[in-house]
Amino acid sequence: MHRTIFSTPIVNTLLRAFSVAYLKLAGWKVLGALPAEAQKSVFIAAPHTSNWDLPYTLMVAFALRLNIYWMGKASIFSFPFGPLMRWLGGIAVDRSKSGNLVAASAQAIQAAVGPLQLIVPPEGTRSKTRYWKTGFYHIAVAAQVPIVMAYMDYERKVSGLGPMFVPSGDLEADMTRIKAFYAPFKGKNSAQFEAD
Questions:
Q1: What pairs with residue 71 in β-bridges?
Q2: Which of 33, 58, 72, 119 could covalently link to 43 via disulfide, CB atoms 3.0 to 4.6 Å apart?
Q3: What are phi and psi of 128, to 5 degrees?
């Protein structure tokens, strides 16, 4: 995987200090820790209802000493922002050609040397949506890594890592359990998020 802000020496240390200080001053609590067995994992990023989710996610990742990569629509990687977005950990997703996305993502996780956490928003959009995309689940199964249920609750100003989830292979049953975990959380634009 490409070098990111999280693997850039000195910059990483400075931005971690800034992130911890900013989140504390803004009244946010960061909870949880990455289990040792989830050093390589797929993160669910929910609720995803605002462009503000990205800067907060990056700061929480610094606070928790994570090495994240995140998926975003290809249009935000257009000139002149592409190099910056990739340095921030972004991976462009062309939704019109997503057929090989699961296999490519799983292969990248397996091939990575050292920790790597791939963040995938299940809604796939910041618009109101009722149905979750299951790409995160299929990537985790293909890569044979656990899912970590990451969350951001703007109402209570709490963000962090919830429980680790190992897919059972029963997609419907697993999605019911995952959505039940996310039901209490409120995104910045909470009317756009439904976990049921």
A1: 91
A2: 119
A3: -60, 130
CB 186 within 8 A of CB 155: yes
Instruction: Give me 98's structure tokens.
Output: 């997503």
**pTM score of the predicted model:** 0.86
- Residue 96 three-state SS: helix
Starting at the edge strand found earlier in the chain, the sheet holding 147-153 runs 29-31, 158-165, 147-153, 40-46, 116-120, 68-73, 90-93
Token pair for 66: 């994570």
Angle, CA 126 vertex, CA 54 and CA 140 arms, to 5°: 70
Per-residue pLDDT of the chain (196 residues; tens, 9 = 90+): 788 999 999 999 999 999 999 999 999 999 999 999 999 999 998 888 888 898 999 999 999 999 999 887 788 888 888 999 999 998 887 766 656 788 888 888 998 888 999 998 786 444 444 568 888 999 999 999 999 999 999 999 999 999 999 999 999 999 999 999 999 999 888 666 555 5
